[in-house]
Structure formats: structure tokens, C-alpha cells
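Quick start: read one record
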Amino acid sequence: MPSVITNLAPMTELEAVNAMLSSAGEAPLPVGTDLSTVINSDVIMALNILRNAARDIQSMGWKFNTEFGFQLIPSTANPTSPYDWVDSAGVHTNLNVFLPPANLLGFAVTPINEQQGYQFVDTVIRPSRKVLVASVPILVFYDRVLNRDGFPVTERPYLYIDPVWAFDFEKTPEEARRFITIHAARQFVQQIVGSQTLASFTDQDERLAFRNLKRAFGEEDDFNMLRNTDVSKHLGNRPRFGGWISTDPRRKSPS
């Protein structure tokens, strides 16, 4: 029995998979289907493509999945921080070891004073050189300047990053779900049918969805030289540009 949208609500993962199946001319799954129990190979392929597309698109970094100045604390796992690092000259240094969070897609080092010390932090996530768990190197924030698995305890009690997070499909905004679904559906049709021309979603659909996502959550803000309180004072604090001054509490001029 075909699934029917009965209430207007943000798109679910099941609805996204059904849109992908329909775009390839396949029957959608019934409402309430548990995707984790489905064994149909095409459905599994569609779900994998959808989740891969969600990762790819979120890795671009949007307002809904980025932060600034996120504080990482030293690892308390095995091995615990501080870690006794011994260099080639036999010198011991206590290092704080920082592990990447599980849903971290990417990051930049936060450019703040606390990150400087004797040098600005230059780090990358990579397998450790000496820190092992069950004899296996673990992923750490690696010090690229001194080639070691952490940072001196006295200098870096914390590490601050600007992270890009991975969220489950249904924890992303509707604009992102729409673009992810269309992008994934076109990939799905290409693999199933072997031709993009047979897809129900067109290149124009994908461009429109991307435009809406970028407009809502892209890095660019709608800045304008007139949109500040100093200029507003000289213009009499009158509402302009569709009433943005009077309706947006972040941009209201002082009374």
C-alpha cells in the first residue's frame, strides 16, 4: 500500500527514502515502516545513499551544524591525560591528549588568545604515534609542530575548535532535508536506472533546494551598511526593509 502524507510536518527519513524510490519508479514503503528491519536491497541502497549524502552535505559546514570556540577537555579514557611523552632525547613531557568527538565531521582551530602560548595551535586529527589502546593507535588531535600526540599540560589545559557536526537526518532543518533528499535521489536513480534523465527530480530542483539551504543557513549573512543602529538613529528610527527593525529583536534600534 503506498504511503500517504497525512499531516504537514518536517520530512522524515522514511519519507525521504520513499521519495528516492518513487523517483526511480519503485513502489514506496508503507507508513510506519521501520527502516532498520527492511531487507529489500533497493531500499537498503537508498538508505545508504541518503545517509552518505547527509554526511557529504553537512561536511560543507552550515549555521545549523557549526559552532565557534567549542571547548575540548583532555581525554579521561584509557590512557588518561596527562600522558608521559618521552622524546628521542629522553626528555619527559606531560601531555594533555585530546580525542575527536564521535560526530565531528571537520574543524578549524579557534583563533583566540588562549590558543597561543609559545606557538599558535597547529593540529590535525590523525592516528597517534605512541598513545595506544589495546596496542592500537587511537585518533588524537596531533601536534604538527612538535610531532607528538598532545600538548603540554601547563600550556593547554583545554583545546578550542570551531567544529562541524554530523547530525541524523531528522535532526537537520527542513531546507537541509529537502536538498539531501533530492541530491540522494538523483544519485539513486543514476545507480538503479543508469540515467539522470529518467529521474523525477531535475537539476533545477536540486539547484533550487541548494539555493534555499544556502539562503537559510549559509555562511553569508544579509549585511547592509544601512542595517545598523547608528545609521538608524540618523534616519529617525523608522522601520525599513519590510519592517526588519521593528520585528527582529536582534536589530531593533534603541528607543
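The radius of gyration is 25 Å.
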